[in-house]
From TrEMBL:
One Pfam family here: DUF3575
Name listed for the protein in its UniProt record: DUF3575 domain-containing protein
Signal sequence segment: 1-19
Keywords: Signal
Length: 249
């Protein structure tokens, strides 16, 4: 059996990291990172993070980005999805890291770290639909908004190569997350909007891992909104470039 490219890549990173244990690493206080995780989860995702060393073995970080809601092809048995007229979204976050002095042989931002984080995600999507459960198919459009607010703690490891490049892996990141969704139907139709809203909601929340279980049996209220508090999680894969004044240790 041939080893997978991912395992070969991981082995290379680990070998390179441990091979540098005996080297002095220059101290650059800033790292600009590209978050590749959301590129796998969402459409047109462009998220950048900035990490800055604040104290020996401590750092703070900020994240901003743009992303779109995942493409949904099946909205329900009686709902035909047509074109998406609008799509957009954002990510904003902040974190503080403590690089474990006893676990790491090098200064931050290299090695094992823990710390709190906060993130908020937002998505907007507008789409045309056709409802077919009536005698005559009826056209409408829905406007949906999703907001997620997460406060949690994370454990991760950051590799540094040649004092310039970094590979940042968030391995564990549980959080308390507030999930807020709102939807309204627009158009000249005669069907009951409550039934259609909840059918569309079931299809959309399946795009968020674990959210379908959290919102089980939840329905929109009379104003077309749902709001629930639950457990979330975070994992990330970021590639970074380090910059700033060089100081040899």
């Amino acid at each position: 059996m041939k080893p997978s490219p991912f395992l070969l890549l991981l082995a290379f990173f680990c070998q390179t990291a441990f091979a540098q244990d005996s080297l002095d690493v220059g101290q650059r206080r800033n790292t600009l990172k590209l978050d590749l995780t959301h590129n796998l989860l969402y459409r047109n995702a462009y998220n950048l993070s900035w990490e800055r060393i604040t104290k020996p073995n401590q750092s703070m970080g900020f994240t901003v980005g743009y992303q779109e809601f995942p493409q949904v092809f099946n909205l329900g048995e009686n709902i035909q999805a047509r074109r998406e007229s609008e799509a957009g979204g954002y990510k904003v976050g902040a974190e503080y890291r403590f690089y474990l002095r006893k676990e790491n042989r090098h200064a931050a931002p290299r090695g094992v770290y823990i710390g709190p984080y906060f993130t908020t995600l937002g998505f907007n999507t507008t789409r045309d639909i056709t409802y077919t459960a009536t005698t005559e198919p009826q056209d409408a459009s829905y406007v949906a908004k999703f907001r997620l607010y997460s406060l949690g703690a994370q454990l991760g490891y950051q590799f540094v190569f040649n004092d310039r490049w970094s590979l940042d892996l968030v391995l564990v990141g549980p959080s308390i997350t507030r999930y807020n969704a709102g939807m309204r139907l627009e158009g000249d139709f005669e069907f009951d909007p409550d039934d259609v809203q909840n059918e569309i909601l079931d299809a959309l929340i399946e795009k968020f891992p674990g959210l379908s279980d959290l919102l089980n049996d939840k329905e929109f209220d009379s104003s077309g909104k749902v709001d629930v508090l639950g457990i979330g999680y975070r994992y990330q894969f970021l590639v970074g470039y380090r910059f700033g004044k060089y100081k040899k240790k």
